[in-house]
Amino acid sequence: MTNDLAAAPTERFTAARHGDHHPGEQPDDQPDEQPTTLSAALRRSLARSGGMTGILVAALPAIAFVAADAVGGLTWAFIALAVAAPVAFGARLARRESLRGALIGLAVAGVCAGVAAFSGEARAFFLLPTLIPAVLGVVFLGSVLVRRPVTGMIFNRLVGGPADWRDHPRLLRVYTLSTLAGVALHALNLVARGVAYLANQPAVLAALGVAAAPVFALLAAVTLVAARRAITAAP
């Protein structure tokens, strides 16, 4: 699902805090020993987001809904969704993704289908995912205003940063800037989705949902590398 994808780059970073990491993986609240190059960090971030295969599997219900609507109309779109959503759920479990993430994806598909059924429009399937960037943008911006930037809250333990990272100007600056970058990305995402929604372009909305995951994985990778370097450079 599209808004499930939007959360993907952070879901697996935070899952271990709730005892929900994958078998064989290092718990996500432990320092990451991977190389500090951007390319390595990006590969790591994408892997934690399920990789491109996982991203497409998560997007399968939305893709099936849009494709069936284009071919046969809204009724066939709901039929395709009823088939694709359980298939995606099973595929995510088969890939040993978290049960919580798979259940969230299934629930989101059901809620979005309900909205579309109520409105009678295929584009309404993406109404809630279209609004998600606005909510996340406000959360990100608010976290900066109270000096608790979201990226610091998520990534600091992962990179082995000090518990009092808010008292380290260099590290706080990294997390503040990356969180503000997240605000900008959420704003762009909101505008793009809003334009596509008003133009009644469900296929574009589905594509934007797929594109969100690698974009935010890149932001996570840049944050990880910059934070490690800030920690290394600390006196």
General description of the model:
With 235 residues, this protein is mainly α. The protein has one domain. Helix content is 75%, strand content 0%. The chain is built from nine helices and no strands. Helix 1 packs across helix 6. The longest helix is centred in the last third of the chain and has 32 residues. It is elongated, with a radius of gyration of 18 Å. It starts with a helix and ends with a helix. 45% of the residues are buried. About 12% of the residues have low confidence. InterPro entries: UCP010219. This is DUF3159 domain-containing protein. It holds the Pfam family DUF3159.
In short:
With 235 residues, the protein is mainly alpha-helical.
Low-confidence stretches: 5-32
Distance between the termini: 45 Å
| Integer count of domains | 1
Largest sheet: none
Count every helix, treating DSSP H or I runs of 4 or more residues as helices: 9
Helix/strand/pairing class, anyone? mainly alpha
Question: Got a strand count?
Answer: 0
Rg calculated over all Cα atoms: 18 Å
What portion of residues belong to β-strands?
under 5%
The assembly state of the depicted protein chains is single chain
Helix content: over 70%
Describe the global form.
Answer: elongated
Query: What are the secondary-structure elements, in order, as H or E?
Result: HHHHHHHHH
Question: For the residues shown, what is the average pLDDT?
Answer: 84
